[in-house]
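Let's practice the habit of predicting before peeking. Look at the sequence and jot down your guess about where helices and strands might fall. Then scroll down.
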Amino acid sequence: MSENLAADLSARPLELGIEAVDPLETERLRRVITAQEPGSNLSGLPAEEMLRRLGILTAQGKLTTAGMLLVGKEELLRMTIPGHSAIYLHMKNDVEYDRRIDSTKPLLALLEEFTNSVEPHNRIFTLKFGLFHFEIPDFPPEVYREALLNAFTHRDYSIPAPVYLRHFPDRLEISSPGGFLSDVTPENIIGHEPISRNPLLAEILERIRLVERAGMGVKRMFQILLSYGKEPPAYESGADFVRVTLRSGRAEGKIDENFARFVVRCQQEGKALTLADLLLLNWLKRNRELDLTEARTILGRSEREAHEALTAMVNRGLLEPFGEKKGRVYRLSKMAYARLRKSVTYYPFRRAESAYAESAIINYLEDLSGPEETRFITNEIVRTLLRVSPDQATHLLTRLVKQGKLTLKGKGRGARYYISKTQ
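Done guessing? Here is the structure:
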């Protein structure tokens, strides 16, 4: 077991033993272990030995708080951990609900009950990609179950308030009592090292494979939703609550089918997208460019790791860099833009920007001093000055030549553009 369990409320032994364990919940636990890891040695052990191995019972036979939450008898659970409860609300709209479930069951039973409440309303969208069909649920079960288990695992059980699962037509909202621990925030949660308010409970859930190991659960939630063309989980927090919102993407047809197809295509080409790829591409669907500082914030990683992620995307043809050193920015590559064109909310180079760019080129030349033969501009200078692609720089310079504003001398890499004497 973890070394820090001495300060862990969920590891606290209760003055109760095996008599407080519900045999039905023990068998439910065994079924979960068998389903999640068919070859596990735990599932074949006698009940009491299995519970000891997991830390549900101490070596002295006492039931731990985590054990009570997982397999305790419900009436004893209500008495020993009065803060534990959960409420499911099926919302008709933002202020009314048509179904409510209040539960104080042990966690595994509660998870099953809430899953059975969500699934009848969990519509399936079929994504067609050539001869293949992919089913995308409004709310992927592995995502909302992870979010629910995180809420139960990291909540503050000293606060007498329930975990809420509010099921709206277009979203799920899962909120739990107790704010984020330490310096975790909604902004850095994806890159922060895992930290738990109830380490033993978290460890048991990891061992039975109900939650992802080593804090990978949140990352997996982001990866699944982004891969399906949905928005990533949205976190909010206060001093005494954490809330995560999972959106279906159905509202107003906002599921990004084109992006989902792009993800599938990359996978079929043997170029599966990483979580960093998905996060940065999702940003670049709405924003023309990003720099290293923005990438670092989006990924929640160090500057070095963010730079490595950007470089890897450039090397795989997903991004193109513009500018030098501290002024460098990254944009979708021509290939990525062509494939994601229906997903992108901007044009690569709008007409108004073209007029501004042409003016900037003329102003740059007019500001140069020295002999006439040194007052020129090149494709490379335009790319650095305006942060555009080589093709866009060529397009701008060619337009200015046709307009009689510039004169071209030389060819290829030696091409230089001068202000026309008629200017």
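How did you do? The first strand starts at residue 86 and ends at 91.
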